[in-house]
Amino acid sequence: MVGITVPIFMDNIPLVKCANAAAGAVPTVDLSAPGAAAAVEQACRSVGFFRAINHDVPIALTDALEAGAAAFFALPHKSKLEASASPLGYGSKSIGRNGDVGWLEYILLSVGSGSVAAASLPPSLRAALEEYTDAVREVGARVLELMAEGLGLAEENRDVLRRVVASDEADKMVRVNHYPPCPCPLAAGQRGVTGFGEHTDPQVISLLRSNRTGGLQIMLPDGRWVSVAPDPDSLFVNVGDSLQVLTNGRFQSVKHRVVAPAEGEQSRLSVIYFGGPAPTQRIAPLPELMREGELSLYRDFTWAEYKKAAYKSRLSDHRLGPFELF
Ligand code: GA4
Predict the structure, then answer these.
(1) Is the pTM of this model over 0.90?
(2) Which of 58, 196, 207, 312 could be disulfide-bonded to 258 (CB atoms 3.0-4.6 Å)?
(3) How far is CA 281 from the centre of its chain?
(4) From the record, what ranges are coiled-coil (predicted)?
């Protein structure tokens, strides 16, 4: 498919050296099933990640977005650069501002209430992104309610998590990542080129959809990396750092990374919706959840404070470290 139309300097892209574990260890949750709340809770506690099926995002929205994104990434590099407005907009190879690099190009945008923030993108792609993010935001809200239910919160408190990411001021983002096949020859023992280096997401929840090309890997609590089999019909849900804190560590934010496709493989295209809190939102364990005498594992902070610290960090840093009390 489409290639990164910039000169290829492979020397600074790190290689991924570890062996892949077998696929299959990723929990699947049927969001329409009666036991969904318990299954969501179990997945977020044990792995911090799950595959959501029957999520109700219309396939037509996903198809339109995928087509629009593929057309955008096929544009000449110069045209794509017109949509770059660091830190938001188009970017390639460079992730964040602190020296992280990967074999990808992307669009990163903030999502306003109902609209994707201004960036000079083709109008059809903007429209597709807006429709898609509207639909995925709804799924995120539903999943956060299921989490609250699974955590045993009383019916009148089942909206506490959802409300953290629901306000007009909530810091929502969308990212479209394009990983073209990497023309880098691999030496024996090397497993692939880093598309997106290992990290946890700082937000509350992330919902990812990809095309048929694999590459996403998650780290299990025992430190093993697992390849996530691609499934264009599913949404993959990530627990972010803020949700780990809101649940006082009951849910774990999941470390994940992407290995770029090798030469001859298909491009990987993924879209991720990040549900973050409002800047002034206090990120602390939910009082409704705390047992008598239970201590917070973290010192209090706001999302503005955490985001500022996160954006000064490197991708693989343990960002919650400075906020941990024990
Ligand atoms: C990871 C999750 C989201 O993609 C993101 C990323 C952000 C960026 O690409 O600018 C960060 C990364 C992410 C966490 C640490 C910092 C900031 C790159 C980086 C090195 C948009 C986000 O919010 O945090």
Answers:
(1) yes
(2) 196
(3) 20
(4) none
